[in-house]
Amino acid sequence: MSAPLPFFDGHNDFLLRLMKSAATRQETWLGSSPGHMDLARMKEAGFAGGLFAIFVPPVSDGPPPDFKTLMADPPYHLPLPPQMGCANAQPTALEMAGLLHWMARAAPEDFALCRDTAQIRAAMEAGRIAGVMHMEGAEAIGPDLDALYLFHDMGLRSLGPVWSRPTLFGHGVPMAFPGTPDTGPGLTDRGRALVRLCNELGILIDLSHMNEAGFNDVATLSDAPLVATHSNAHALCPSPRNLTDRQLHAIRDTGGMVGLNFASFYLNADGSADPGTGWDVMLRHMDHLIETLGEDHVGLGSDFDGCVLPDLIGDVTGVPALLAAMARHGYDVALLAKLARDNWLACLDRTWR
Fold first, then answer.
1. Residue 326 neighbours by CB under 8 Å, 6+ apart
2. Which of 61, 180, 200, 304 has the greatest CB tally within 10 Å of its CB?
């Protein structure tokens, strides 16, 4: 049996699951455990590297909202979670940053925390998984931006200024279906300062949860490629989380990147979380992204451990089946290598400079 094609993943929420399973941390990381990922399954699947998200979940007085259930039966329009302050977000973000460092120390032969593409390529050549620190929602940075320097020193190389809630920096799109990303105002003054400092430090700016006005502001301000780490085509699934063709063209024109999101409610034309979502649905999105962006600007952005996956994928070990479906669909060996890994590395080269 041949080895699986190595791939780089633009987004996962494994750190959140790891934080929530403190009592079984060792097993959650090193062994087989519930959820979409662990070290053993990543190695089995050919997971060569990816962006690991620091995400601070919403705080509520009662039980946390079950977004997967609330979004399962479209149409829906959920209220945005309230804005979160730095004092509430930063301790959780620091804990998750520490967990990513712990992962590398717990499995030094198999996993490396990487800060540049040379380190990513060296890790891959040595058979180690390359983990890159990402932040989904910048609440932990704070208004003076000083914490961005500290997180950068800890390894932060990718940051989404917003999740699906307002921040000091801008506005995320709502969890709604159907809808468009044109949902409100753009970046705040602090958001513009954040974009400039990310450019200065070489931190990728992730547009996946940002509304259209904020997207436009980043496109105007930033001197780096525009990147959406885990988004799909709005033309095929009219969710505010997906990208319009105009946005895709803007990403293409800057040499940017879009990672295909595996979440079923961002794939299906009716917005449903259908576990029976087929390869044909995913391939339609991939075809559209390639046609609109060009084959050098598309990759994978699974959203593992943060979404409802099609049963055909199930967890990280299902990615080789997706790549096999792409091959049957007519993608040749060279294109598969680009989509699986090479496009991400080239985009990070252009972004981190």
1. 283, 286, 336, 339
2. 304
